[in-house]
Amino acid sequence: MNALQDKSPIFLVGFMGAGKTTVGRALATHLGYQFFDLDDLITERTGKSVQQIFSELGETEFRRLEREAIQSCAKLVRSVVALGGGAYVHEDNRSLLRAIGKSIWLECPLEVCLARIRGDKSRPLLGSEDEMVRLLAQRRESYADADYIVTAGEQNPEELSLKIAELLRQ
Questions:
Q1: How far is CA 41 from the centre of its chain?
Q2: Angle at which helices 20-31 and 157-169 cross, to 10°
Q3: N or C: which end of the chain has fewer CB within 10 A?
Q4: Contacts of 103 (CB under 8 A, 6+ apart)
């Protein structure tokens, strides 16, 4: 059975700026699936932006809320979900996501990610280039644990969504 036949959710993982939301929307449209952004689900539940949660409640509380949002994805079918850049780092989350659906790492060069997000004040963990190099290095092994790895950065979202759909059909 290919990854699309059971209609379980597809989770896009990767570093901030890798294109998870943009590619996720294109993939959902291509497959006729619903699209969700995990950070948006958290914002809807709390009434606070991710940046507010980080500044008012701290990263630990955000990660707890993130885990709850991931758990709520268990009931989704025919859906594409863009995860926040840190969601796939925690082994508990990876195990839960594996039980719920399939994960795809959008492996995107750091330079491309940084060019896309430079100056974006809504990203609480966005720091200097050196800090981003270290953060990606810390997360890379976790991202590589995804069910599928797709190189992103050069192709437009529609081309990438077609490539991912083909990979899921195999």
A1: 13
A2: 60
A3: N
A4: 10, 11, 12, 13, 88, 94, 97, 146, 147, 148
pTM score, two decimals?
0.91
Token pair recorded at residue 103? 């994960």
Rounded to whole angstroms, how far apart are CA atoms 46 and 165?
A: 33
Quickly tell me which residue has 């809807």 as its tokens: 44
Topology of domain 10-169 in CATH is Rossmann fold (3.40.50)
| CB 30 within 8 Å of CB 162 | yes
Residues 18-38 pLDDT 10s? 999 999 999 999 999 999 999
